[in-house]
Amino acid sequence: MLYLQIGMEGQNLEYSRTAALASLARIDPGYPPSNVAEVLGRSENERLLEYVHAESFTHLFPGQMPATPVQFLTDLNEELRGSSAIHLWTMIPLCKYRCHFCQFPIMVLSHDAGAAGAATRRWVDANMAEALLWLRAVPRLREAPVAEFCLYGGTPSVLPPEELERLTGFYLENFNMAGAVLRTEGTPDSLDSGTLRVLYELGYRALTYGCQTFDDELLRLAGRRHTGAQSGDAIRKAREIGFSRVDGDLIYGLPGHSVDRFLDDVATMLRLGFDTIVAIKLHLQSFNEVDYAVDNIAPTAWESPAVRARVEERGHRWPSLGEQYQMRELAVRMLADNDRVEHPTTYFQDPRTGPELWRALNLDQSLQVPEIGIGLGCYAWSKRSEAHTLSDPRAYLAKLSAGEIPFGDISRMSDHDREARAIRMALSTCQPLSDSVHRSRFDGRSLFDPPRVHTFESLEARQLLTSDSSDGTIQLTRNGATLVEAIMNVEAW
């Protein structure tokens, strides 16, 4: 099996323990090695090392049994019978430009105003057409209480005011949004004062800014068309207008990144007062090769080994695994010193505002409520099944024209897989797992029953978690939290 390595060679290589260990050993000499580097170097953690060296990444937990649209929709409708909340999100796949790391199924708007306007109308129309199909196919969906509605992309903030109003009004009218938090996202150059005011007037109170970095050189290298200063201006404008929470994303491991540069970004986010600071590692393996919530049909610029090699030839070295884990661990220490709590993995919350609601709804052990994603390349799930919509724009629109929800892959879960998924999701929150909660959800079965107790025992022996059967809790260690994505995906559940 070929894996993607972004070390010195900048090319696709078959997994090699020697190469992976060399990448771990390559560190910034101005800082101590990461703690997790020593953990990954142990032979008993070989599969974890192989996973992180592959640049794999996933947020999904698919079933093992192929399913039909009818089976999925029936499962969802049945689960909504007793659901107290759902997470509803929708995607507008339009951007003004494409970043070199972006793996989402987006289309770049034309510079011609007429063509761009037609594209925004076409994709808002398509989104609402798909939503109506969902409402017809899942009768209980119209009344299910939406806890958080997320307008995502792409860059939904590129929509003109009249299209933002039309799309938001449609969802407010057709879904049970009475108690919902409305969230949207955008780039610092698209969420200007005028757009922010329009969104606020429409009821949006939560924002996610894709800052990525405040370093202007790295922004240009990544294909971004805003500056670090614009990112700072954007949050200040949002606060002045009245948004109750503003969350922001950072990426570490960009070409040319150093530990100092990334820590400067984290310090800037803290100074600006973002409610959530998302610190996510750059991943270059295609989403099409792993299970992720949104697929793409075209490779990103940086997926290409030749492009990565040219970037490095221009003097922008790709950080090693050792350097990336230094960035992560030192950032976590800085964030903890400022009372930030990791919940879930990579999301560092201000405890005064708490976790982003949609993430808690999806992952918290006591929640894990149904999720419905509407739009090109989206994802939806209930406890027994999950479904992707198509990410190819032509195929997606053709299915819509035929009056069908444009489903792609659909799968169902056995009882064993359903329980395993709940455990893996809960682990990803970096919060303690409760045996009593698990028992209440799964007919009295315990986290400490075979076979999964053997996995927990193995992880505890490797100092990646701690367990206490007397009070019924399981908790990741600091190293376990760093490696939780790999733990979820390579251990036996």
Number of domains: 3
Summarize the biggest pleated sheet. 9 strands, mixed
CATH fold description of the largest domain: TIM Barrel
| Terminus-to-terminus distance | 23 Å
What's the total helix number? 19
What is the helical fraction, as a range of percent? Answer: 40-55%
CATH superfamily of the largest domain: Aldolase class I
CATH class of the largest domain: Alpha Beta
Calculate the mean pLDDT score and round it.
Answer: 93
CATH architecture of the largest domain: Alpha-Beta Barrel
β-strand percent reads 15-25%
Q: Largest sheet, order of strands side by side?
A: 12-13-11-10-9-8-7-4-14
Describe the structure.
This protein has 493 residues and is α/β, with parallel strands linked by helices. It folds into three domains: 52 residues, no CATH class; 239 residues, TIM Barrel; 78 residues, Orthogonal Bundle (Arc Repressor Mutant, subunit A), CATH 1.10.10. It is built from 19 helices and 20 strands. The strands form five sheets. Strands 12-13-11-10-9-8-7-4-14 form a nine-stranded mixed sheet, with helices on both faces. A four-stranded antiparallel sheet has the order 3-17-16-15, with helices on one face. Strands 18-20-19 form a three-stranded antiparallel sheet.
State the gist of this model.
With 493 residues, the protein is an alpha/beta fold. The chain has helices at residues 17-25, 35-40, 46-53, 69-79, 113-137, 161-174, 193-201, 216-221, 228-241, 259-272, 305-313, 321-337, 357-363, 393-401, 415-427, 435-441, 452-461, 478-482, 484-490; strands at residues 2-4, 12-14, 65-66, 86-92, 94-95, 107-108, 146-153, 181-186, 206-212, 245-252, 276-281, 341-342, 347-349, 371-374, 379-381, 385-389, 407-412, 433-434, 465-468, 473-476.
